[in-house]
């Protein structure tokens, strides 16, 4: 594969990972009062952002859907979950944030939703 083709396929993944990193690096002021609306919004964002990440990784690894194998699905899953863990770890260094396994669970839920949807398409 030529370098230009490789870059074109993987550029969206790099940009998306960068956006996740930037948003996770933003300090937040924790409010004392629990809000279901805030909780639902944040967890929906987790599910959505990692569903998109899985799809982008699968798209790049499968050469935009031209290659299809279980190995590509598994590799895309592993990459996305490892990135979720690394993102939560990264958040432990950001003021007002914490890294939680619960959030990795929501991320993984988004990854699995995306896996199911992509499998329907191919």
Automatic annotation (TrEMBL):
Where the record annotates domain VanZ-like, the positions are 13-116
Using the record for this protein, list the coiled-coil segments as residue ranges, or answer none.
none
Q: Which UniProt keywords apply?
A: Membrane, Transmembrane, Transmembrane helix
Q: Which residues cross the membrane?
A: 7-28, 40-58
Is Transmembrane given among the entry's keywords? yes
**NCBIfam families attached to this UniProt entry:** vanZ_1 (NF037970)
Q: What is this protein called?
A: VanZ family protein
**Species whose genome carries this gene:** Candidatus Beckwithbacteria bacterium GW2011_GWB1_47_15
């Amino acid at each position: 594969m030529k370098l230009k083709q490789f870059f074109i396929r993987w550029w969206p993944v790099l940009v998306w990972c960068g956006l996740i990193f930037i948003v996770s690096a933003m300090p937040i002021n924790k409010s004392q009062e629990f809000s279901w609306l805030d909780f639902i919004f944040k967890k929906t964002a987790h599910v959505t952002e990692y569903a998109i990440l899985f799809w982008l990784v699968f798209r790049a690894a499968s050469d935009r859907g031209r290659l299809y194998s279980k190995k590509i699905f598994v590799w895309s899953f592993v990459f996305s979950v490892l990135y979720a863990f690394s993102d939560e770890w990264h958040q432990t260094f950001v003021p007002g944030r914490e890294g939680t396994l619960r959030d990795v669970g929501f991320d993984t839920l988004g990854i699995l939703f995306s896996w199911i949807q992509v499998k329907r398409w191919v």
